[in-house]
Design goal:
This protein is of the alpha/beta class. It folds into two domains: 72-170 and 453-462, no CATH class; 174-447, no CATH class. The chain contains four helices and 33 strands. It has helices spanning 12-66, 78-90, 200-203, 248-254; strands spanning 102-104, 107-110, 118-121, 126-135, 138-147, 157-169, 179-181, 185-194, 206-208, 216-218, 222-223, 227-229, 235-237, 241-242, 256-258, 266-267, 278-279, 286-293, 300-301, 305-313, 317-321, 324-333, 342-346, 349-352, 370-381, 387-390, 392-400, 405-409, 413-415, 424-433, 446-447, 450-454, 460-462. The chain has a 23-stranded parallel sheet that branches. Strands 1, 2, 3, 4, 5, 6, 32 and 33 form an eight-stranded antiparallel sheet that branches. It has a two-stranded antiparallel sheet with strand order 16-31. The protein is elongated and about 155 Å long.
Length: 463
């Protein structure tokens, strides 16, 4: 009988231990790789989310900036104007730091240096940049957000979004005032007030947009409402009454207000020229119907004169009104020349009514809010007979004298010239208002500076 002895396999336990060690090491390495990858993915996702947040922050930033530019309504270079406004508002500020804004081939780069960003969080390299392109008169603002760029890495996550903007007129407050001037306003004597039953404090206000002192001078007379200036210290008050107070210190402290510079309209008088179909024949009185006065005519209306429809005066001219003048329409002075060569002199009774019946006046019936539109003309009033106009009086300069009252019905007295010593001078009896032109702004021949507002539904995330 053969006895079999068991075969001894020495070292098997060591081999099994090594096998499990390798297995656990492999699992550990796999777990480490998985965790490391997950951390990197999470970090990347975090940077991507922060980059998108930076881009969206940039969109909101530029929404604000584009709403605070002022592009001339008839600009032939809106992108250049936009770039200039953005440079003035952003360069040398904490937002842009030492960076710059440039216009290249009708495209605006903010900042203009490659790889530069407006920083939102320096700890993780978050920031945004923008490219603004023209799109048929409107613009597309593409904002690229960045995050994750720091001293330990040279790469960053980026996300880009875009938003379309369209130009819209800037709402103006210039017609909120009874007297509004780009230049200096001087009050020497007389009264700026409201008609009977109208509180002068709420309506008879003055505003000068002149940026140097004195913008508003009051040495006498009575101003029913308050004074408004665009910078501290631009008003000079040495006498008179303002807002019911005759105390100089009280006037300056409590009845003088610093306001934001209003946006003055741009006027185009050429739109009215086609309505003036009849040439002036040299009459000194009688009825003038839709008449154009050629340059250098210098007419004097000394008798009883009735103006029906439009009186369109070409530059240069000095037009003098004596006696009684009835205006059944409005006066427009060509927007050319200057107040030294374009003059309207009123020294008699002047009253304004509505357009008469007749088909020849039908094209003018949609024109509202205008009594006198003469942006580059001077107008002086004198004499001793009261006058009444309906609508806004828009002039280069204005000066009143004599002992007559001037009543303005639902209109603002606006002066635009800034070259002389005073744009509006009050040195006579009374100018009374029934209301300002706030709710009766000119319906034709006027346009306003524009800003950019977002187009609804145009937000896009870009790859």
């Amino acid at each position: 009988m053969i006895r079999r002895h068991p075969i001894l396999r020495r070292g098997i336990m060591s081999a099994m231990a090594m096998l499990y060690l390798v297995l656990f090491s492999t699992l550990a390495l796999g777990f480490f790789a998985s965790v490391t990858t997950s951390v990197e993915i999470a970090r990347n996702d975090q940077h991507t989310a922060k980059a998108l947040l930076a881009a969206e922050s940039g969109v909101q930033f530029f929404r604000y900036q584009l709403a605070h530019v002022a592009i001339p309504p008839n600009s032939s270079t809106p992108m250049s104007d936009l770039c200039s406004d953005l440079q003035a508002n952003l360069e040398n500020t904490g937002n842009l730091a030492s960076h710059h804004i440039s216009l290249v081939n009708n495209t605006i780069y903010i900042p203009d240096a490659a790889g530069s960003y407006i920083t939102t969080d320096s700890s993780n390299g978050s920031g945004f940049s923008a490219v603004i392109t023209d799109h048929g008169g409107n613009i597309v603002c593409t904002v690229t957000g960045r995050s994750g760029l720091n001293s330990s890495t040279s790469t960053a996550s980026t996300k880009a979004v875009s938003l379309d903007f369209t130009r819209q007129p800037i709402a103006t407050s210039v017609f909120d005032y009874a007297v509004a001037s780009k230049g200096r306003v001087a009050m020497y004597k007389g009264t700026i007030g409201g008609v009977a039953g109208i509180s002068p404090n709420s309506i008879a206000t003055m505003m000068s947009a002149k940026g140097t002192s004195p913008a508003l001078t009051v040495s006498g007379g009575t101003i029913g409402g308050d004074l408004n200036i665009v910078g501290a210290g631009l008003a000079s008050v040495t006498g008179g009454t303002v807002g019911g107070s005759s105390n100089t210190s009280d006037i300056l402290n409590n009845h003088t207000h610093v306001v934001s510079p209003p946006s003055f309209p741009t006027f185009d008088t050429t739109v009215f020229a086609p309505y003036a179909t009849n040439a002036y024949g040299g009459a000194t009185g009688g009825t003038l119907t839709n008449v154009v006065i050629p340059p250098n005519t210098n007419p004097k209306f000394t008798g009883n004169t009735t103006i029906q429809g439009i009186l369109y005066i070409q530059s240069p001219n000095t037009v003098t009104f004596r006696g009684n003048t009835t205006l059944q329409g409005f006066i427009v002075f060509e927007n050319a020349g200057s107040p030294t060569t374009n003059v309207i002199n009123m020294s008699g009774n002047f009253s304004q009514g509505t357009l008469p019946a007749g088909s020849q006046f039908d094209p003018l019936r949609t024109t509202t809010g205008i009594a006198v539109l003469a942006p580059t003309a001077s107008m002086t009033t004198s004499g001793s007979v009261d006058s009444t106009v309906r609508g806004n009086i828009i002039l280069g300069t204005f000066a009143n004298g004599g002992s007559a009252d001037l009543q303005i019905d639902q209109g603002t007295l606006m002066t635009l010239d800034t070259s002389g010593s005073a744009s509006a001078t009050f040195n006579a009896k009374t100018v009374k208002f029934t209301a300002t032109g706030q709710n009766n702004q000119p319906s034709q021949g006027v346009s306003y500076d524009t800003k950019y507002v977002p187009v609804g539904g145009s937000y896009r995330e870009l790859n």
